[in-house]
């Protein structure tokens, strides 16, 4: 009874195990060797193409340098965008102020143009004074010349 | 003084031509420089042949006054006239026909000033 049970357990393991193994290693030899390169009649697996020799120090440095350069370029790009954004944020008030100044300047220019069209009437004090003088002169002109002559003689200081 | 100025102005603007004669007889012969100046300026503003002749032809009156201030005030009043036709005619006649050389020279100078202004 125990053997039978053991066989049944092994069968169960066999059923499960291939399904797990199939996930890791494919039965198809061309799965990881798409070009089907063979060596002495055997299909080479993908592992064959993996570099067994360690890269030289120079190559390692070169690759790391490239990675570092890439990282630096990426950082610079981020920095540039950040700096641009920061500059925009910094100078935005200045730009807005400049736009406001420009708008105000245009408004002032319009007002100045209106001033040019406006004529201010400054009271002419001489002309305002003149009518009073003329009224007095007009009154005197109504008098005969002989009477004015006498008035002139009396008005002239001795 | 204001009343005196009004009287002189009234005589200068009077319809009666005798007003000019009164000013010539009393105003331009007055000892006061101020009265002579007011009279000369009023006669210049009248801008008639008779009133301008008083200022140009006679020695010691108007532009020929012995007081430079009175003479220059008269010249300035003549220069400020809008219509200078009459004064130019009087000045030309004076330059051509007057017997006094000094008066002719003065008239000539005033005429030159008018032409330059």
Written account of the structure:
The complex is a heterodimer of chains A (158) and B (117). With 158 residues, chain A is mainly alpha-helical. Chain A is 71% helix and 3% strand. Chain A has a two-stranded antiparallel ribbon. In chain A, a hairpin with a 2-residue loop joins β1 (38-39) and β2 (42-43). Chain A is rod-shaped, with a radius of gyration of 56 Å. The model of chain A has no long low-confidence stretch (mean pLDDT 69). Chain B has 117 residues and is an all-alpha fold. Chain B has 7 helices and no strands. In chain B, α1 (2-13) crosses α2, α2 (18-27) runs antiparallel to α3 and α6 (85-97) packs antiparallel against α7 (101-116). The radius of gyration of chain B is 13 Å and the shape is globular. Chain A binds chain B through residues 133, 136-137, 140-141, 143-145, 148-149, 151-153, 155-157, and chain B through 3-4, 6-11, 13-16, 18-19, 22, 26-27, 30, 32, 35.
Short description:
Chain A is an all-alpha fold. In chain A, 71% of the residues lie in helices and 3% in strands. Chain A contains four helices and two strands; from the N terminus they run H-E-E-H-H-H.
Radius of gyration of chain A: 56 Å
Distance between the termini of chain B: 32 Å
Q: Identify the strand order in the major beta sheet of chain A.
A: 1-2
Spans where pLDDT lies below 50 across 5 or more residues of chain A = none
β-sheet strand percentage of chain A: under 5%
Mean pLDDT of chain B: 93
Helix content of chain B: over 70%
- The secondary-structure element order of chain B is HHHHHHH
Q: Average the pLDDT over all residues of chain A and give the rounded result.
A: 69
